[in-house]
């Protein structure tokens, strides 16, 4: 197996999740994932190993996303499609969980793009603050502050949406 094939097998899902989180569109994320790896194949000879391969791949994915978002940005599909609990689960529990997941996706999409990006990279992909700084081209302090702000904004917005969804005034 070639190095490119190994990279694809290892990083296709994390890159897809990142792009899905950024676009909110399953099909666009699939296309951007393919475009990301196309760009990786084209430019792999330029990778000097100055950073970790993960960081470089996410930088390529970020560049691919930025090019796409300059052309078009859609919010037409649900952000998160997580399988619900087992078949034996109470139907009401399934409905409530499905609604909670929908609200989480909606809340994530409502965050400013930079906050959404750092939250996805840190909390979904579990990248280090240093790696996120390299990917975003920002300082470590900026990354930490924006992850903290993103988490706070996400929590505040989610609680408000959840309260409104259950008919409560917040």
Automatic annotation (TrEMBL):
Q: Where are the transmembrane segments?
A: none
Record's protein name:
Sigma-70 family RNA polymerase sigma factor
Q: What is the lineage of its organism?
A: Bacteria, Bacillati, Bacillota, Bacilli, Bacillales
Q: Which residues form the RNA polymerase sigma factor 70 region 4 type domain?
A: 104-151
Keywords, sorted A to Z: DNA-binding, Sigma factor, Transcription, Transcription regulation
Name the PANTHER family on file: ECF RNA POLYMERASE SIGMA FACTOR SIGL (PTHR43133:SF52), RNA POLYMERASE ECF-TYPE SIGMA FACTO (PTHR43133)
Q: Which residues form a coiled coil?
A: none
**InterPro entries in the record:** RNA_pol_sigma-70-like, RNA_pol_sigma-70_dom, RNA_pol_sigma70_r2, RNA_pol_sigma70_r4_t2
